């Protein structure tokens, strides 16, 4: 007869993402609905009735006596990256950089390692690659002019070998490309698995905190754009950055998702070139097409990415169709909001589009999802429908409601200041927009009918 505690001693099966426990293995977690995350775990130890006190590693001190120099950000040498990080990288911080294959993560970090190595006061930089050979990385460094005597390169996929390189080089910056290719000898599973990724990340985080060494990890992404590996990976690190870009466009956007040391909604702009990745400190010119002759079907709006206002040109084209179901094609815009704008134009603007194929897009491949671009989409569609261009040097900002009203948006003054810097001197703004900058003639529109008067 089995002992009474035999059932309690059985190993449990636990989800690596949410921690939900089940009695037997299942392919899909019943709690978070994630696939392939349930794994066998040892039974939990009974809680101790009493925990004995131990000697602290460092004595507690008044908060006013804590040294701030060890937590001050150090510039990476790349202004756009420092902008997203909140001024630079903090000693002991662990940064996770994720992005799709081929977007330029390795090229960007190789440039970061080169910029860091050029400053001898900060110590050498160590670039560890687990995906490529040392010769392949050297070829990329030659192409991007990133060769430096203080930039050390190691091709390793074993965690103990990576730690050995750190002891030998004693770098001021460690870059691991990528965390899914490094394997810990103390953990089970294959490289890239849930257990391995967690063990490797935990060891590197402990190394960073112990030595005050900034560590940058490259992470893969899944087909839906999320960071590959267990969800706890994003909780272990201090900063999570996403490097985004279309393979058909040279523009790259570095977006902050999590940042314990600065803003988590900042955006940096880069441009992919043959000789590497270059910063784009003024990206507004990439998203507008300034022509000498004005054309119909275009409107310029100002979006805000983090704290950075960006001018974006919205284009629309209407073609009469004989089909029962007109075509609606959208690129760079929210298709649901474009459909809503078409309905508002037909109901409250007296501009029906049921007999027209509608094509709407943004210039430069920039994605616009905020409601502040609704009015620009509506005027671009109306301009194409009436074959009448909007006045030159006009910028449009506002959210369109289902009742045809123009709703206020945040930061109108900051948006118009950026527009004025680029030569736009006229604007359509919603009511209660706050103080506006000088040099811009702003016209307040309260509904879609008032806004369409500028087209008619």
Structural commentary:
The longest helix is centred in the middle third of the chain and has 18 residues, at 194-211. The chain is an alpha/beta fold and 456 residues long. A hairpin with a 2-residue loop joins β11 (267-273) and β12. Helix content is 23%, strand content 24%. The protein folds into three domains: 8-43; 71-281, P-loop containing nucleotide triphosphate hydrolases (Rossmann fold), CATH 3.40.50.300; 286-452, Ribosomal Protein S5, domain 2. The strands form five sheets. A nine-stranded mixed β-sheet has the order 6-5-7-8-4-9-10-11-12, with helices on both faces. It has a four-stranded mixed β-sheet with strand order 13-14-16-15. Residues 357-456 are annotated as: Lon-protease-like. It holds the Pfam family AAA_25. Keywords: ATP-binding, DNA damage, DNA repair, DNA-binding, Hydrolase, Metal-binding, Nucleotide-binding, Stress response, Zinc, Zinc-finger.
